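Entry type: protein chain
Record version: 2
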Amino acid sequence: MRTAFRLAAALCLALWGVRLAAQEAPEGAPAADSSAWARAQVLVSTGDGAAGRALVDSTLARIPVGSLRYAEGLYWRAALAANALDAERDYRRVAVEYPLSPRVHAALIRLAQLEMARGDRGLARQHLERLLGEYPPPDKRATAWYWLGRLAFESGEARRGCLAMDSAQASVPTSNIELTNQIASERARCANLPATTTVDVPRPAASAPIPAAKPAATAKAPTRAPTAKPHAPAAVEYTVQVGAFPTHVAADRVRQRLVAQGYAARVVPRGKLFGVRIGRYATRAAAGKTAAKLKAARNTAIVVEAEPR
């Protein structure tokens, strides 16, 4: 009876693993890949971790290095790793070497969790802030805000933590019941905070008083300066942004891959980050066509106003 129960549980886990692996698998990835990752999960979960990890390694050895399929394999090798150091190594490779992988957002969250476990809140915050700067899907955005809130609470910054949890609650999909409940549990800490816990909006500096005009020395009418003709406002252009990265090297790596695929990609400094953008379009609708094509290939893509020429 117990054997039958274990087999049934393993089968359910395998089917769940196949669905999970397929949800964010690279487009065009063979079904054999997803099947291998699912079988490896079953082996590890049923106590045969060595066999599960060996299956991941043998499958990974047959996949071309540098492909999104390879990044998928690195992600699963990290998820099933025997220790935190091995997991961190592969999650970091996914996050740095494969920024176009659909697993990069999950890898950044796992890296942040590993840093929190070892007590390095600063590095954990960097991973989560990078994730938010790359326009992740709603569930990953909500997760990032949730962990930023946890970091703030652990650092004694209750107000910052509550604001982060508010952002998490606003982003979480209604279908993600588990995360919704976790956010609600953390937000319970905010019930006793004073009502003044709002974001401090910096006020503009007070303008210097305008001095009173001196009386004219003579009765002559003042000479009017020629009125300059107003310049016509520059036409707004639109572009497609596929991500924002903490270093120029990481951004340029993505740019090169997009150029190889035929896109006119460029790197644009945006504050502390480096954005990767494609094309300039006269209308938002025209930019949206390129964004839709990128999204169909499992890339992150949003339409934004282009930077000045």
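Comment: The two ends are 71 Å apart (CA to CA).
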